[in-house]
Amino acid sequence: MTGEKKKKKRLNRSILLAKKIIIKDGGTPQGIGEPSVYHAVVVIFLEFFAWGLLTTPMLAVLHQTFPQHTFLMNGLIHGVKGLLSFLSAPLIGALSDVWGRKSFLLLTVFFTCAPIPLMKISPWWYFAVISMSGVFAVTFSVIFAYVADITQEHERSTAYGLVSATFAASLVTSPAIGAYLSVTYGDTLVVILATAVALLDICFILVAVPESLPEKMRPASWGAPISWEQADPFASLRKVGQDSTVLLICITVFLSYLPEAGQYSSFFLYLRQVIRFTSETVAAFIAVVGILSILAQTVVLGMLMRSIGNKNTILLGLGFQILQLAWYGFGSQPWMMWAAGAVAAMSSITFPAISAIVSRNADPDQQGVVQGMITGIRGLCNGLGPALYGFVFYLFHVELTDTDGSDKTPSPHSSAIIPGPPFLFGACSVLLSLLVALFIPEHTGPGMRPGAYKKHSNGAQSHSHSPQGSGAEGKEPLLEDSSV
């Protein structure tokens, strides 16, 4: 008995020491000022700015490391990362409710950015660590929980919009900067700069970011139990069939987001391989489409929602997505890609419109459950989509033959009838999604309120445990982080 008491005392001392690392004595949060949305914005901007810088060097390293099956390996790497993120997000969300947001912001940013310096040290380790980093690559989940902790319900949608716009802005600027530095000074400097930005982000979290979740709002003890339901990534998906409207929305999201997730993982490689874009042109393409997407989600989305309604906005967005994917699939000229990119920007209105229809029709204390299901499906697509695209490229023998943008020799597949087979598969998937969306009711009122649903914790919906309770659950900016 004496030995057990000593062990318990040692354990309690370790827990207190860990708490002191994150929280000062007296419960005052470490950091600069009070917790604010701007702290979250800086964390997101720096993380994705660092990764955006590597867009051009990563294409070259990927081809050098996997010269035979570049698209297939790219899809598998991102697929493993996405699936691991889907599996780990609920547990990390639940743990952040017990241990606080700051510690998990530090953990997720550190492991997400850990592969960056390995790009020049060891490419094989670089891609291996990228895959494994998916276990912690859930920064957005923790950021949304952070924002939910510090905002009132009526402020939350604006705050989430600011975070999403910051994400888009970081990817608008950084690929162009990385491409310029790569051409002028070489890839090594770009990797060093990206590593420095990632370290700056980690230092910012350590020094400047205050804890958003007060200790008094957490479970009584750091030893508070985490139930399996909280950590189960499939908990939300099992409830999908309990309501017909929710089922229709979830099928719509799955069929439309699956090709989108695959497209984001391979599209820049595709532009270099089939369309023969230079690295500078790829960076310019990302910037232009990003800016147009921001305009579409702010100005155009508001006008459409007021003029044609929520459901019709979803249908219009899906129509734009079908046109965009078909154009990418059949297009073989640069101007076609630019035109399809403008259409792609318009298709980014779909998911904010889906989020709005869920928020409008679900009961306030059940919105978190419903949106948790849809967010879980999105996480699943982040794993399946890249792997599917890579496999289809492999089946049709589309390989990356050269990454030198100065070589204008036509690719062996650029003259094919279907230069981009996966995009056509994606267009067919979105067409099915459009047919399903036709049956989503515009207004269901209480009918969409699934009384049988039981509240649960979902990592992608981790802010449902925040002090604001159920009000925090209903306002997640569903899928907006993937709109650019």
UniProtKB/TrEMBL annotation:
- List where Polar residues composition bias occurs: 458-469
Q: Identify the keywords attached in UniProt to this record, alphabetized.
A: Acetylation, Glycoprotein, Membrane, Transmembrane, Transmembrane helix, Transport
GO molecular function of the protein, one example?
transmembrane transporter activity
The membrane topology of this protein is:
Multi-pass membrane protein
Q: Which top-level group of life is the source organism from? A: Eukaryota
Q: What is its main location?
A: membrane
User: Per the record's keyword annotation, is rRNA processing included, yes or no?
Assistant: no
Disordered, as annotated region: 449-484
Q: Which Gene3D superfamilies match?
A: MFS general substrate transporter like domains
Q: What sequence ranges are listed for the domain Major facilitator superfamily (MFS) profile? A: 36-445
* InterPro entries given in the database record: MFS, MFS_dom, MFS_trans_sf, Sugar_transporter_CS, Tet-R_TetA/multi-R_MdtG-like
| TM helices/strands, residue ranges | 37-59, 71-92, 104-119, 125-147, 159-183, 189-209, 246-270, 282-301, 313-330, 336-358, 379-396, 416-440
Task: Name where it's found.
Answer: Membrane
Xref: CDD domains: MFS_MFSD14
Please indicate if the UniProt record lists ATP-binding as a keyword.
Answer: no
One matching Pfam family is: MFS_1
Q: Which GO terms describe its cellular component?
A: membrane
Family stated for the protein in its record: Belongs to the major facilitator superfamily.
Protein's recorded name: Hippocampus abundant transcript 1 protein
Which organism does this sequence originate in? Neogobius melanostomus
